[in-house]
Structure formats: C-alpha cells, structure tokens
Design goal:
The chain folds into 2 domains: 112 residues, CBS-domain, CATH 3.10.580; 234 residues, Alpha-Beta Complex (Spore Coat Polysaccharide Biosynthesis Protein SpsA, Chain A), CATH 3.90.550.10. With 356 residues, it is α/β, with parallel strands linked by helices. The two termini are 24 Å apart. It is built from 10 helices and 20 strands.
Length: 356
C-alpha cells in the first residue's frame, strides 16, 4: 500500500460549510475530509457517511461542519508503516487513515481503494431503458434516450461501465422504445466483459412494472437504476447501505434547493406575522436509483403498468420500511434538452468518463 501524497486536496478549515465538505469529497476522490489548521495540524475528519447522516438529521448545505467533525479519528504516525495502517483499516472497518508527524501535522493519507482489489458481486443490476424520451424530442425520435451520446458514449454505456468497475457483472436491461438499437449495441454483454439479458416490454410498463417480467427471482438484493441517470454514486456502497439497514427497499435521494421568486408572507388570521423575501427551501427528491430485496417482486403484478412512486408508496402503506440513502455525489437526470447539454458540458461527467 502506498501513501497518498495529495492529502492537501482533501483538507478544509474548521470554518467551512457542509457544501464545502461535499465539494472536497467529490473533487479529491478520497472519501474523507481532513479538517486542519492553517499549519496543517489535524483537528479531525469527516467521512462520507458523516455527511449523509448530517443531511438526514436536517443540516443544510450552508450548515457549519463543526458539529459533524470526528475529533478523535484513527491516525498513524509516519513511522508506523503501511502494514499497521492496513491492520487498523480492517479492525475499525474504515477505508482512509491520515498520517501525522509528532506535532500532529498531516503528512499523508492511506487509502484502501488504492490497493484493494474490487470484489466481484453476484448481485443483479436492472437498468430501466424503455422510456419514450418525449421531452427530448427530436433527439429521441430515432434514438432511445439511454443511447444518446455523452462524451462520445451512450448514457447507458457509462452506467454499465461504472457498475462493472465496482464488481457488477450481471445486468438486465428493460427495453421498449427502439429497444432493438440497444440490443444491437450491447448484445449479450460479451464485448463489455459482462452478462446482459433483456426484459422486452410489449407495452409501456412504467418505471417499475418491467420488473414483473424477470424470468427468475434473484437470490440476493438487487439494484435498479433509471437508464438516463448519470451519477458518481458508488453502487457497491449503496448496496452495502441497503444490506446494513435491513429494510426491503432503499431509495437514493438528493437534497434539492429551490428559491421562491416572490416574497412569502405568513399570516395568522389577517395579521402578517412573518415576511421572508424569496426564501430558499430544501427538499429531498427521488434520484432514480433503488435497492430491493427479492421479496418486493411479490407485490408487482405481471405485465401491469406500475411506476416506482406507486411501488414505494405501496411498500410504505404495507408497513414495509423504505430506507433513504442521501447522495451528495454528482448527479444528473438527463430528461430535458437542457440536462442533455449539461451532461455533455459538465466537467464532473468528463471526469466520470475518463475512468471508462
């Protein structure tokens, strides 16, 4: 294991915000924030999981990081060596360990990902690729939306390649609109180093109904993603989160900021009790990535139209709990012409493409 010398890219001062921490996580790729003084003395760390828990507890992007800093992180000295670092990673089930000198100043960072081989996953991944793409006309009149090119490759190929890099090899593509174009490009997956099967919808079955066409019931939790969602989310981490929470379904959610263009007046009877000029509100939105236990398939009626929103609502009504996985990673739902242009121009998605 080698020590990462670019630890300064993962550093932030204590006066930073949650948004600053998310930016560092996304830009550095180290999955950790090192909170330090101007002289690089380590104050504490913030992990990827710390950010997700903070968002679930109600912190906003503008909140201070002070309340979520782990001020007693696992660290190693410059004399410890990589064997000790690896032992600590296994013992504490962590993937990053800062290296400090005798004055507690950061001089390096050990990263598990740099030496650990990706473990093959038997879990199935279903990609919903049958939508009509009406909002993207005329682009989708002769090309299915998941096959639109971003950085020279179809959106669907980006999704598949990213999942493959994380150890996924078993894929099912649900197709309908111009599905033959998708089949001709991907075939059985051999040229991509994976196995691909197809769910061929004879009529549009919605964003969840195609799952009823699965010819078998998976023997382990599986992932479902929309075929027009480009994201830096780690599917393996998402699946681990699902497994650890022991709920039949997990929904990836993203915090969305919205600003009202008008001044908002709060009334009590005919009295103005509060006035807010163009307030900003935060809401969690569906990010189009799901994890399900096989039992969920039992409530889906074969060849019947069903949207994911209805499926999730049904699970909640039947008291089958649904977990939320907040994502702070780059995310784009390529549903409108402006989104399509943003995907092509986005520097983050260019970075995403480099690994393909």
């Amino acid at each position: 294991m080698t020590m990462n010398k670019l630890w300064n890219q993962a550093s932030l001062p204590l006066e930073s915000t949650v948004q600053n921490a998310i930016q560092v996580l996304n830009d550095s790729g180290s999955r950790i924030v090192l909170v330090a003084t101007e002289s690089s003395e380590l104050i504490g760390t913030i992990s990827d999981g710390d950010i997700r828990r903070a968002l679930l507890k109600g912190l906003t992007l503008e909140s201070s990081i002070e309340t979520i800093v782990n001020r007693n992180p696992v660290i190693v000295s410059s004399e410890s060596g990589q064997e000790i670092a690896l032992k600590l990673m296994n013992e504490f089930k962590i993937q990053q360990i800062p290296v400090v000198d005798k004055q507690n100043r950061i001089i390096g960072l050990y990263l598990w990902d740099e030496i650990n081989q990706v473990q093959a996953k038997k879990n199935l991944m279903v990609i919903m690729a049958g939508g009509l793409g009406t909002r993207l006309h005329p682009h989708t009149e002769k090309c299915p939306k998941p096959m639109l090119l971003v950085s020279g490759k179809p959106i669907l190929e980006h999704i598949l390649n990213k999942a493959k890099r994380e150890g996924f090899s078993e894929f099912v593509l649900a197709i309908y609109h111009l599905g033959h174009i998708i089949e001709e490009h991907f075939g059985n997956g051999e040229k991509f180093g994976v196995n691909i099967n197809y769910l061929r919808e004879e009529i549009p079955l919605g964003t969840a109904g195609a799952l009823s066409l699965l010819p078998f019931t998976p023997d382990s939790p599986f992932i479902v993603t929309n075929g027009d969602v480009l994201t830096d989310i780690r599917y393996g981490e998402f699946l681990n989160f699902h497994n650890s929470h022991k709920m039949p379904a997990t929904l990836a959610v993203r915090l969305q900021e919205s600003q009202n263009p008008f001044g908002v007046v709060h009334l009590r009877d005919n009295e103005v009790v509060r006035y807010r000029e163009k307030p900003i509100t935060y809401d969690y939105i569906n990010a189009g990535v799901y994890a399900f236990d096989p039992e969920v398939l039992q409530i889906i009626v074969k060849s019947t139209k069903l949207d994911m929103s209805t499926l999730i609502e049904t699970l909640i009504q039947e008291d089958k709990k649904v977990a939320a996985f907040p994502i702070h990673e780059q995310w784009l739902d390529v549903g409108r012409p402006s989104d399509f242009l943003a995907a092509e121009d986005s520097l983050s998605l260019s970075k995403f493409d480099e690994a393909n």
